[in-house]
Amino acid sequence: MSKRAFALVAHPDDIEFTMAGTLILLGRAGYELHYMTVASGCCGSMETDTATTAATRRAEAQAAAASIQAIYHESLADDLEIFYDRPTLRRMASIMREVAPEILLVQSPQDYMEDHMVASRLAVTAAFTRCIPNYPVDPPRGAVEQDVTVYHAQPHGNVGPLCEPIVPHIYIDITSVIDDKSNMLAQHASQKKWLDETQGMDSYLRTMRDMSRSMGQMSGRCEYAEGWRRHLHFGFCDEDADPLCAALADLVYRQD
Description:
This protein is α/β, with parallel strands linked by helices. The protein is built from 9 helices and 8 strands. The protein has helices at 14-18, 20-28, 50-67, 86-99, 114-128, 178-186, 191-199, 204-219, 243-247, and strands at residues 4-9, 32-37, 71-73, 103-106, 149-153, 170-173, 225-230, 252-254. Strands 3-2-1-4-5-7-6-8 form an 8-stranded mixed β-sheet, with helices on both faces. Helix 5 links the parallel strand 4 (103-106) and strand 5 (149-153). The longest helix has 18 residues, at 50-67. 49% of the residues are buried.
């Protein structure tokens, strides 16, 4: 089975802000890349209706995935309607069995937005069910034996919803691919005005670089970085499994 890395997040552009550098580096290390946003992005505009906005953001996400030769997977819900429920979990679990990733990149279980946290929970449970033949998935697919190691990206601002600091276990040096990461985010052109107006991100490309630079400074070792925490191994992989660090060994810095 070929090595696969699956980036699975809530919204279009979430991958680009927090984990695209790592995903690009995994592609260069020989991994087959998979890209999915659980929500359609339909609320990401102050000017166009939900259907138009969702279509625009789907096209932008597809372009971002294509820019790094990643396989794009369709969304399952609308914005602010990512729920930890049976239908959504069964659909996501089916996709997880189809992809059978060795590395699963997901959002932080502590973040400022409920969609982010629920998407993370769904992804983790879907990965857990991958090898359980009695768990029904939609559409039906057989269980897979592929071990998967789950890694959580940093939340926005490096804090949880109660302002608690979130410190990564490891830092990945993404300095060599920061321009490629910026190019991926630039595919989401519809978001410039939206993010400026609703979340105070004065030029979303600059904000992304500032976030990546802040991670580099936290590492104390590089200019730009992405931070990661490895999920507990029970039910997913061997205790010492760490394929992300193995694949990108020369670019990994551990938290002191």
